[in-house]
Amino acid sequence: MKIIGLTGNSGAGKSTVCEILKKKYQVAVIDADQVAKQLTQETSAYLEDIVKQFGDEIINEEGKLNRKRLADLIYNNHQKREALNQITFIHVVEEIKRQIEAINKDKVVVIDAPLLFESGLDKLCDATIGVFARSTTKLERICRRDKIDETIAKKRIAIQLQDEYLKQQVDYIIQNDSTVEQLEEKIKNLPIFS
């Protein structure tokens, strides 16, 4: 089994890269954000730890995590964001390891994780790829995808890791400011997929 770590900031195009990898290269993709969401859909140790840290007010009437309330808390407070990250790293990394164990050993596995290095998931990987885009491109994509205005999107971008830091950490870089066809060509030219 080959494990590839994929990282990059919001709006860079990681999801598009993952779609291409699934369709053209039949890789198994594990999306860390989706794993985190799934773990909060039911009563779990992860959800319990989040409630312990942030209080009952982040649970809605149906007993589910109020994602918007939690986002409002962490986007404006570095310490609270770090506290959530530490809880997330424990539970999500454990679940990702469990999912990797269940995948056919002949498969290539891609772990899509914005916080690949901070979570320690990079240590599971044989290689890492960073997906990058210009600030204006990311801003446009985030506004369109999340249906939010530029002010909110700029705040989200501002709290993320700097591209320069990520570029120094990853093994391969994909610059994703153009068409899907050009992106496919860039992926094809990576030694790990050619």
**What portion of residues belong to β-strands?**
5-15%
Report, as a whole number of angstroms, the end-to-end distance. Answer: 16 Å
Q: Which structural class best describes the helix and strand composition?
A: alpha/beta
Number of helices: 10
- Poorly predicted residue ranges: none
List SSEs in N-to-C order.
EHEHHHHEHEHHHEH
Q: Output the CATH homologous superfamily.
A: P-loop containing nucleotide triphosphate hydrolases
CATH class value:
Alpha Beta
Oligomer: single chain
Query: What overall geometry do the principal axes of the alpha carbons give?
Result: globular
The helix fraction, in percent, is: 40-55%
Mean pLDDT: 91
Report the CATH architecture.
3-Layer(aba) Sandwich
Main sheet makeup: 5 strands, parallel
Rg calculated over all Cα atoms: 17 Å
CATH topology assignment = Rossmann fold
